[in-house]
Amino acid sequence: MPFGREQIEQILPHRDPFLLIDEVIELDPGKRVVATRVVRAEDPWFPGHFPGRPVMPGVLIVEAMAQTGAIAVLFEEANRGKIAFFAGIDDCRFKRVVEPGDTLTLTCEIAEMRGPIGRGKATAYVGEALAARGTLTFAVER
Asked: How many alpha carbons fall within 13 Å on the CB side of residue 38?
């Protein structure tokens, strides 16, 4: 720990431009993970969201939280090489705009697993400010 994109790509199936985490800084497999994403001005969504006022789309912040949670689940030996499908989000709230130059700190704590279905509580912070939160539901392929 920490580990970067090369190791992340060994765990997640996502690739650029859709791999939304840069580094894993804490990991307790099956339980908790903390990752980061440096939000770059050259990220492909900024020219259209919004011209003259670049803001990271909320759905991509949620996807970054989901990818972070998937690291905790897919790092476990029983789930290596599988895909964790995003199945839903509850109680999602956005609290702060995320802009180029920000660093997102993403956390996910796995709250429960029942067979291949699980739920995790996720957050995205910029510094000390909460940017987004929600409870994710996912399904690990069999």
From this structure: 8
pLDDT 10s digits, 17-51: 999 999 999 999 999 999 999 999 999 999 999 99
Q: Amino acid identity, residue 125? A: Y
Q: What is the pLDDT of residue 142?
A: 81
The active-site residue, picked from 32, 49, 82, 96, is 49
Domain ranges for the chain, please list them.
5-140
C-beta atoms surrounding 29 within 10 Å: 15
Does 14 qualify as catalytic in the annotation? no
The CATH-assigned architecture of domain 5-140 is Roll (3.10)
Identify the sign of the CA torsion 128, 129, 134, 136. negative
pTM value > 0.85 = yes
Q: What six digits make up the tokens of 137?
A: 């539901």
